[in-house]
Every structure is written in C-alpha cells, then in structure tokens.
Amino acid sequence: MSIFHNIKAHFADVLYIWRHEMVKVVKDEGVLMFLVIVPLGYPLLYSWIYNNETIHEVPVVVVDQSHSALSRQFIHDCDASQDVDVKYYAEDLDEARSLVSRQLVKGIYLIPADFATTISRGEQGTISVYCDMSLMLAYKAIYQTAMVESARLGAGINIKKAGNYTKREDAITAQPLAVDEVAMFNPSGGYGSCVLPAVLMLILQQALALGIGMAAGTARERHRNGQLIPDDDPHFNNAYRIVWGKALCYGMMGAVAAAWLSMAVPRMFSFPQLADGWTLLWMLLPYTIASIFFGMTVSCLVRYRENVMLIMVFVSLPLLFLTGVSWPQSSIPGAWQGVSWLFPSTFGARAFIRINSMGASFDQVFPEIRILWIQAAAYLGMACLVYRHQFRLARKWASK
Amino acid sequence: MKYLSQILDIALRELGIIVRKNQIYGFCMFVFPLALVLFFTTMLDDGLPQDLPIGVVDHDNSTTSRGLIRNLDAMQSSRVVYRFASITEARNAMQEGKVYAYLYIPEGTAAKLLAGRQPKISYYYTMTCLAAGSMASKDLKTLGMLGSMAVGRAKLSAKGATSRQIRAALQPVSIDAHMIANPHGSYNYSLTTVFVPGILMLFMALLSAYSIGMEMKFDTGKDWLARANGNMVVAIIGKYLIHALAFLFVIFLYQYYIFCVLNFPHLGGVWSIVRLSLLQVAASLGFGIFAFGLMPSLRMSMSISSLWFVLGISMCGSAFPVMGMDAPLQAMSWLFPLRHYWMLYQTTVLNGFPVIDVWFHLVALVAFTLLPWFVLHKVKNAIQNYVYIP
C-alpha cells in the first residue's frame, strides 16, 4: 500500500468518526444538554444573579442614647450614604438585637448616652457598631460607612477647633496627607465582574468534560460487551484516528461555546471587556484543546456514564477556588497550588481574567498560555494512551 | 410490625448495594465529602488573605516615604515585594498577576507634608479578586490615616500632650466594631460552612435520584417494590434509611471537626446543629426523589438535580446577598433548599437566635421533605412499567 493511500485512508477514517460522533451527540439528549444547553444557558443565569454587582442601602438599626446634635448628624450622614439605610430606631440594644434576629436589619449602630458630652470635653467619643457577620458584603458596607462618617464627623470637629480662615486651611486640617484611591479593572468592586470571568471559563471545561463523559458512557451502554470502542466497524481500526475524529467533533462544539462564553455573555451583561481579539484567540485555542483532551481522558476512567457527573460536579467548586478568583492566588497553600496545575481551568481562568478584565497583552499572559499548550499536549498523549488501552480491551472482548 | 420488618429488609438490601455493588456510593458518601472538608478548611486556614504581594513606586526617597512603605509592609495583609521605577512598570506587573496593588509616592511628598501643602499619594489596587482588593483597600485607608496623623502627633507631643489627649485630638470620634460570631472576619467561617453543606446536599439529592434510577436501569426495581408489598411509602423509607444514616454520620463528623476541633463559632448550641442536620438530610433526599418522580429518567433527573443544586450555591445568597438580586430572583431563591438551610444556619447556629424568627425557612425544608408525596404513584409506575433506554 502506498503512503498516499495510507494518508487518504487515515483521513477518511478520521472524517467518518467525526461524522459518526456528531450524529451520536445530536441524538443523545443527555449529551446535548451538557454540550449545548449548559454552556449557552447557564452563564446567562449566573450573569443575571450577579448582574446588580454591588449592594446598596443595607438596612441598619440605630440605638441613639445620646440624643444630641452630633449623634443626629452622624445618623443623617450614614442614612445619606449609598451603602447604608437607617431603617429603624430602637430604644436599647435588646430591641435592636431582636430586629437583627428577625432579619429586618443587618447591623446596629449604638451611640452611647455620653457621646456628645465626652467630645465636648475634648475626649474621644465612641460609637459601637454591631455587625451580623453572615454576609461579608453587608458587614463591609455597615462597617466602612461607619468608619467614613465618623472620620467626617471628627474632621468637622477638628476644623471647628482649629479656627482657620480659609477653606484650603480647613481641608489641610482635615487631611494633611491626601490619599488617592484608585480601584482598577473593576472600579465599582462588582461581585459579578470579579467572579464571572472565572465562572465562564470553568463552565467551558466542565461542560465539555461532562458532555464527552456522557457520550462515552452512552457508547459503552449501547455496546454489547460494555466497551467504549465499537468492534464491528472497520473505520474504528486505529486508536489515534478515533482520538482525532472525536476531538474534531467536540472541537466544533467547544469552539462555539468558547466564543459565546468569552465574547457574547460579557457583552450582554456589560462586564469588563478589555480583551484584544488575537490575544483572546491565542488563549482560547490551547484552553479549548486542553479541555477536550482532558474530558476525553476522564471519560475513559468511568464505568457508568452517570458517574462522570458525580465526579465533575464534585470538583467544580474547588476548581473555582483554585483559579484564585475567590481567594487570592498568593494565599493558596502550596499543596493545592500543585493540584491546581492538573486542570486546564486554573490557567484558562487566570489568563482570561487578565486578558478580558485587565487588558493584558499576549506577552503578559505568555506563562499561562505556555502551560495551557503543555497541558494540551500532555492530555492529548494521555487520551491516546487511554484510548489505545480501550481499543485493545474492545479487541480482546470481541475475540472472546 | 409488618411494616417495620419490611423497612428493615429493604434497608439491608440497600446496604448490600451500597457496600458491595457500586463503589460510587462509597465515594459520594464518604470520600468526596471528607476530601471537600479537608480542601476548604486547609485552603481557608488563614481566615483572611495575608501578605498579599504589593509593589511601590517611590519617587520621593525620603524618610517619610520609607516610613510609609515600612508601615505598609508591616500590615497583616500586605507585603511589599517589588520596587518599581515607574507607574507603567507597576501596572505591567499588575497585569502579569505579580502584584495586587501598588503605592505611588510622588517627588516632594515629605517636603509638602512638612510645609502643610497637602501632598497626595496614590494607591492603585485591582478588584479582579475581591478578597484581595478589599484587603488592599482597607490597608490603604489605615495607611492614609497613619500618614495624616504622623504630622499632628509629632506636633502635639512636642507641645507636651498626653497620649490620651493626642488620640482625642487626632480622632475625635472612634468606632468600636463588634463582629458578632466572627470576630476576625474569617472567610473560613463564612465560606466553608456554606460550601461544604451545599455540596453535601447536592450529593444527597443526586444519589437519591441515582439510586432509584439504577433500580430501573438494572431492572431490580420490581424486586424492591415486591419487598415492600407494593407500598411506596415503605419502599422509600426503607431505601433511604441507609442513605440518611450514612450522610448524617458524615455530617456529624464534619460538624465535630469544624465546631470542636477548629472551634468555628456556634452560638446556637448542639440542639440547633442537630435539628438543622436532620432537616438538611431529609430535604435533600426529598428533592432528589421528587426530581426523579417529575422526570422518571436516570440521566434527566440527575442532570436537573445537579444543575439546581449547583445554582443553589449562588442563589443561597451567602456570597452575593439575595437582597441585592433582581426581584424575580429573590422570589426564586425560595425554591432552593440550600437557601433555607443557610438562613437557618446563620440565624440559629451561627448567631444563636431563636428558631421562631425564621420559622418559614424551617417549614420550607419540611415541605421539600414531603415533596415526594406528590410523585409517589409516578415513581411506582416508572418502576413497574418503564423500560430503561440508554
């Protein structure tokens, strides 16, 4: 047989398997759900949940025992701030506590009876803030508003005492050293803008792994010997051709999902989008390839197709943590950093956040992209190995 | 008596399946949950992000600027690891993921500060990781305050003021923060306690749908029903008795570890924890059986359960509060068992408030437990008549 003929047969087999797999995917509603509906629909739901980004007007209760002009000014200022809403006044701490217990407020401002007197005497007045710690965002809103407003109140007192002549002098009395605070790349500190880019990348990997795993499970169940590779079809005669053919099929699905997740969804919900098109392409290419071969490798390890769901669902939340979006990368313990190197999502999400939210250039994410290519190659090798093993198993069963 | 012996018979049969036939039960009931507990508790062991890498651009090079940098470095969550020559260099490092924030001190800061001309320092931090960004911003606020106070303090102490007088003069109004039940603001306390139960509930629902589905798949369901003499209530109680006991065991193990070994706050006491665990197990199993009854197909019921419970981790509102979501989502949050679990957890266990204040969440969990009642006949019909199609 000539080389030319060989190559032709090779391509014919690959294309045949591609088509064969495609038909199987479209006919299996379980697979279709994970390869099409989940990547298309799930991100929309998540984006909707986090679409409001920040919380405003967190309800608090005030226990004002001072009843002074100063205490009233503090309460006014807090109520006027965008993060806190003074919803109730309570007589004492117990009453306020019962409002927290009934979930009507998230925190308590207690202004003691001697508040104004102490300040008038030239001593330090104290306002107590009690926070319900179940919601970190609510705690931050309540605490930071109290900090800002108490500093403003204090500055006002100091300005009065200083007896300055000009506004400029007042400003310097209030703050001798000015601090310019610049939050970058997600200026409002929005929750969605922060978490969602990582979630989107994770959905891509998990959906591909689930879809591929389900398809492999179905193939096993339809097979008379419970094998992954059909033994009655002459086109399935070579493990490498099977890997290539299947990868082409899933690659089609992955490409559509990747484009949708990385470009359409952030635009629809106006999340930060500073990505340069080519950089994005160069990052998504190895990421999608690595995810597909990762999925194919995992799919060979499961006996029943439902089991792949149990495993992938189990790892999804830890994987989100390992990307360093909920918990800073520098604080992840070394052992878990090591584990995170096994999964494409770790580097895919990190690179995507930096390209998309921070406008990083190709050079700036090159280390991640290099690792993604290494993962793609490694998982390709693994996929070939496990498929060759499956191929031999199928042959052994067939000859029995 | 007849029912009891039937339940025992079915429970023993289920035990045989779990122990001998299918290892995935062992993995989902013991290995995965324990791995998760280990993962989250070791991952968040610090409680708060500490020593975040931070850069400085110091164009002033004075004692004052070096003092500021030293102060920043000494703070718990910041560590100065880079000194950049320019802002551009610093921004590049941020985009490369090397630093979370950088401090810019322009030339002449110290001179202006002494001359009373209000110099301005700038602090840039990235909010692409909220935990890191908010810690950096907190340190910055303290740093700015310290910087401002340094001048006044020197002046006042030269005049002979006592430290009490200085404190009152620099900060007339102070805030005394009481962070109830989580005095350090630990993320471990707030994240582990919702993610671990959330995924446990997911496993419970998935496995309860899975175990009926497998009866159908391998056509063993008729034997199961025959042992209960066709009584669905007996069949279900018998089948899920083992599941409930196994999961309760794991949940108590987890709770012993976090509450007694790691000393997580629990102002509510033991009874509130036990009550919540019982409700948690019952509601999750109920949801899984209901999902199977709605769509008597192994793969569909499992897919629905897993998608629903994974969504629940966001919808429970522990990270992004439900009150911040759109109104339709606020209403929808009632449909997620984890939402009710978490509300009960944070009021009765974490804060130790009376359960009567959140009775509707308790009722909701009971309602999830009773959901299978509506689909009993559908499940029975599926087991008796449906043929599994791969």
Describe this structure in words.
The complex is a heterodimer of chains A (400) and B (390). With 400 residues, chain A is of the alpha/beta class. Chain A has two domains: 3-51 and 188-399, no CATH class; 58-174, 3-Layer(aba) Sandwich (abc type-2 transporter like fold). Helix content of chain A is 66%, strand content 8%. Chain A has 14 helices and five strands. Chain A has helices spanning 3-27, 29-49, 69-80, 93-101, 115-120, 136-162, 167-174, 191-222, 239-268, 277-299, 305-322, 334-340, 344-357, 366-399, and strands spanning 58-64, 84-89, 107-111, 125-132, 178-184. In chain A, strands 2-1-3-4 form a four-stranded mixed beta sheet, sandwiched between helices. In chain A, helix 3 links the parallel strand 1 (58-64) and strand 2 (84-89). In chain A, helix 8 runs parallel beside helix 10 and helix 10 (277-299) packs antiparallel against helix 13 (344-357). The mean pLDDT of chain B is 88. Chain B has a four-stranded mixed beta sheet, with helices on both faces. In chain B, 67% of the residues lie in helices and 8% in strands. Chain B is elongated, with a radius of gyration of 29 Å. In chain B, helix 8 packs antiparallel against helix 10 (232-261), helix 8 (187-217) packs parallel to helix 11 (269-294) and helix 11 (269-294) packs parallel to helix 15 (359-370). Chain B has two domains: 2-45 and 186-385, no CATH class; 52-170, abc type-2 transporter like fold (3-Layer(aba) Sandwich). Chain B has 16 helices and five strands. At the A-B interface, helix 2, helix 4, strand 4, helix 6 and strand 5 of A face helix 2, helix 4, strand 4, helix 6 and helix 7 of B. Strand 5 of chain A pairs parallel with strand 4 (120-126) of chain B, so a sheet runs across the interface.
